[in-house]
Amino acid sequence: MRPICINPGCGKNAVPMKGKVGQPGVRYRVYCSNCHINSYSNMPLKPGVTPYKQNCCTNQDGHLGFPCITDHTKFDRISTKGKFEIDHKDGDPHNNDPENLQELCQHCHKEKGMLGGDFDGHRSTPKRIVQAKKSIAASTLFDSLFNFTYA
Q: How many CB atoms are closer than 10 A to CB 99?
């Protein structure tokens, strides 16, 4: 199902970042095309549309289990446009539910992804699948690959 742009008041369909609409394996942005361009440029949003991104890391309180090292006192919200990223809390890039999204600085987004295993395996593989693959014991994997039986 094609997600809707996360900016309140927009209501347009999100655009693909990988693949084409209707094809298997398509991955969508969290924004429609106009809102995506606005997220990193000075192009204005349509009247009535409020930006989801506030150009501020939501991990300033350290709720992700590590401190945010970005010094937010040195920035204003205009000069940092495009420096903050939308993160999928559950690690599934296909789940664009606004409750599953948070805004993080580039450092916190990368750190959260590395700690959460988001970068294990193929980038588009949901974290829950990667974790299931990791849970196979090495001896079980060896036995299944080589049909090995113990005497």
A: 7
66 and 28 both lie in a single domain: no
Instruction: Provide, for the chain, the percentages of residues in helix, strand and coil under a 3-state DSSP scheme, each rounded to the nearest 5.
Output: 25, 10, 60
Question: What is the reported pTM?
Answer: 0.68
First-last CA distance in the chain = 52
Same domain for 97 and 27, yes or no, is no
β 16-18/27-28 pair status: antiparallel
Inter-residue contact 26 to 14 (CB < 8 Å)? no
- The CA-atom distances, in angstroms, between 97 and each of 46, 90, 102, 110, 137 are 22, 11, 10, 21, 34
Give how many domains the chain has, as a whole number: 2
Range of the domain at 78: 53-151
Question: pLDDT tens digits, residue range 13-50?
Answer: 999 988 898 888 888 889 999 999 988 788 889 999 99
Q: Same domain for 90 and 136? A: yes
